[in-house]
Amino acid sequence: MTNIDNINRRILRELKRDGRLSNAELADRIGLSPSACLRRVQELERSGVIEGYRAMINRQALGAGFTAYIAVGLSEHTKAQQKAFEKLMANAPQVRECHNVTGAIEYLLRIEVEDLAAYKNFHTEVLGMAPQVSAITSYIVMESPKDERA
Question: Are 70 and 128 in contact (CB under 8 A)?
């Protein structure tokens, strides 16, 4: 396991802000030599602390600015029903996240679509047609004053 000291925390914070920083710029911001900085970043990558680098996509600019969180309850609590539901969600392009959770429901979804009509279609034609689903509760996102997903 990689030692996450204050320098590594600073590296992670800077890379989280801008994953496209050059090693020289990152080293300058952290106060390390470029070679020492590169060694640390490579170790963070090798150890799995840094899993990858992604572009942050403005979904609204792509016409998918409608976001909802959906709590989904299953009718049966079997492994087969869970796997079938998870496969269905993996194949649904509207589903950006699918989490198996504890509590009164089994799954929490984050979906992104164009508008309310597209959401209604997903709700009716995908979730409403899934034989495993017994309960659907929707939470429509009005604004996201803090969103740290990369």
Answer: no
CATH of the domain at 92: 3.30.70.920
Q: State the pairing for strand pair 133-140/66-74.
A: antiparallel
Q: Which two tokens stand for residue 63?
A: 């016409």
Which tokens sit at 118? Answer: 């597209």
User: Going by C-beta distance under 8 Å and a sequence separation of 6 or more, which residues neighbour residue 27?
Assistant: 33, 34, 36, 37, 38
State phi, psi for 119 to the nearest 5 degrees: -65, -45
Q: What is the pLDDT of residue 96?
A: 95
Predicted confidence (pLDDT) per residue in 65-84, tens digit:
899 999 999 999 899 999 99
Cα–Cα distance between 126 and 24 in angstroms, integer?
48
Residue 42 sits in the same domain as residue 71: no
Tokens of 19: 């994953």
Could you tell me the strand order of the sheet in which 66-74 lies?
95-100, 107-113, 66-74, 133-140
